[in-house]
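Data card: per-record layout.
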Amino acid sequence: MPDSATFNLFVSHCSKDDDFVSALQQALALRQVEAWIDSRELLPGGLLDQDIKTAIKDSSAYAVLVSPDALQSKWVGKELSYALEVQKTRGKESYPVIPLSLDGTKLGVLESFFEDDPIYIPVSSQAGGIEAALHAILVGIAVRLPSDVPATPQPAAEALEELVLQLSDFKIYEQDGVRRAQAKASLVYESATTGQREVSSEQSWRFTAPIGPIEAEELRWYLEKYAIWPSEYFRERADKVKNNLIAWGKLLYDAAMPVAHTANVLQAWARVDGAANRRFSILVDNTTEAGMPEAEIQSAREAATLLLGLPWELLHDGGTYLFQGAKPTRVRRRLPNTQVLDIPVAATPIRILLVTARPENEACGYIDHRASALPLAEAMEKLGGLVQIHLLNPPTLPALRE
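The structure for this 402-residue chain is written out next.
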């Protein structure tokens, strides 16, 4: 099997099919296959342009797009004839020649060019048609084995054991110049077992944010700036934040699950199977009472935002972080739904615009966009024609606006 990083495919076609072939060229490029296409009108005289002959001969494989317009083009036939001559010299295994039937077009007169009955690949000009045919094309030109992209069944929805911290009635509490967000809190355990009722905390309590804006800013700096540029000049500050992570996690855990009010819920949670999937959700009910003064509404919204933005991922029970371990507890933030929304129906294919910007600076080496695009292209290919990827070229702001 040829090396896909150096694989070149010559695509013979009629110039009226340029748009389709350009899209095909782009889709192949995302899979590290360079497609050589030529839409120039050839000079009269009955002979192929020498550049085209050289391109066909130097390619790793050849494909001819069979369309109603291509069947009327003598140049497409001449290119196919020359490609078959190259195949006789190099062998069918070393130089695949494949016809692509566009929108059900029969090979017609082109079929007589082949010694054996050709096996052509159907392609569609409809949205998503190229993506649906890519696997067959890549197999046909011997870049991929038929079993390389197996069908991926839709995974079944997994059951989740869930703890829900419900927060409401928000206020900003200020004491000695320190402002902290407060809310009424209750804890609920929702079992994954069908028919088992939820367990709610016997009492609600007043939750006060144990971490303020200073700690939040230090954590943001540590994760967003120091992690990217870990300078020795800031090592002492970074070590201080790192040493505080567990302490902050314990404060959050104790405030969210005080034993005095949530012992019954925690007992039910402790009985969960160790192999079960777990999740901790923070439900912030930020709805306000009718007739509430605007100043109080703004204060409540501020408190709700602060509590929702707490670093809940740091929850630490004194032994470990909840997100660690073989079966970690996931963290989810939730807001109440106050509207009746229809189920969104998206017309297929889902279109993805892929933008890979590269710095054009001598100090930076060439960045091949295919390296990052290939995993996305391969994953989307499993969905057949349901997804269509378009590469923004050139990857510039004006092109994005257009």
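Known properties of this structure: The chain has three domains: 4-140, 160-334, 350-401. Confidence is low (pLDDT under 50) at residues 40-47.

See the next section for split statistics.
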